[in-house]
Amino acid sequence: MIDALLSGRLAADPKPGTSRNGSAYATARVLVTTGAEDRLSVSVIAFDAGTVAGLLALTAGDPVTLAGELTPKVWTDKEGSARPSADMKAHALLTPYHVTRKRRAMEGEL
């Protein structure tokens, strides 16, 4: 497990879910640019109510920054090549909406 902060775009709309104990969660897939044209696919799950609500308010293609526990993974494509990926248990998120709102609050506009 790695404590990480990552930024990327949602590959698809986040999906809500309910755990066996009745807790709400959300899952998402974020594409993170790692180089010139390389992208890392990160599977995200969130249990924190604020993070779940924030994810579910977004749609495919929206930019997002997430903080949480990152676990590196490797998967094999159809040609047999090893490809990197990662799983993240997100604890917090930040979107352009949050940044704009924070700036307005700091400038005394809210």
From TrEMBL:
Transmembrane segments: none annotated. Keywords: DNA-binding. One of its GO terms (molecular function) is single-stranded DNA binding. The keyword ATP-binding does not apply. It comes from Pseudoxanthomonas broegbernensis. The lineage of its organism: Bacteria, Pseudomonadati, Pseudomonadota, Gammaproteobacteria, Lysobacterales. This is Single-stranded DNA-binding protein. The keyword DNA-binding applies.
